[in-house]
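Q: I'm writing up a methods section and want to include an example of the input and output format. Could you take the sequence below and give the corresponding predicted structure tokens, formatted cleanly so I can copy it straight into the document?
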Amino acid sequence: MALRRPVALTAAAVLAAEAAGAGWLHWVLGLMVDRQEMSLAGLDPHLMALSTWTGGVLVGAYLLLCAALLLRTGLADRPPGRPSRALLVAAAVVHGVLGALGVGLVGWAAFAAMMLVLGLLVLTLVAYGPRGRTKETRGPDAPEGPEGSGEAPAGPAGPPLTPTAP
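A: Here is the clean output for your methods example:
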């Protein structure tokens, strides 16, 4: 597939930009909470600001990790390993859920942005997905499929059905 490298590199750039945007947003929200001098249900404003900043660092670090994995995948043009795939699938699921929530809370532009990132992640995962099992990975005595495709032959799961008289 000729477009998988540019898609992976674009996804890496988009996730890096999203990490910077999420970090900036959490920083501003933390400053607003810290300067309000009001408590929410008895909570300390400084503690809420510190929690917001910590959350921003964690979200930004996760997005940067995913961006680094995508960058490595795109530059090496090799599929990510199993743990890396799990992290990227989790990021895709989070973007899908945030897109569904964002359409009601923020609007259609946020939904479109989340779906763009979701599409880039899914396209990268599918483009670098497994190509099917070959004879070497299935074993030397495994049956061949149609035209030597490496797949097992398709056939009925049991004996043929016979008609019955009423």
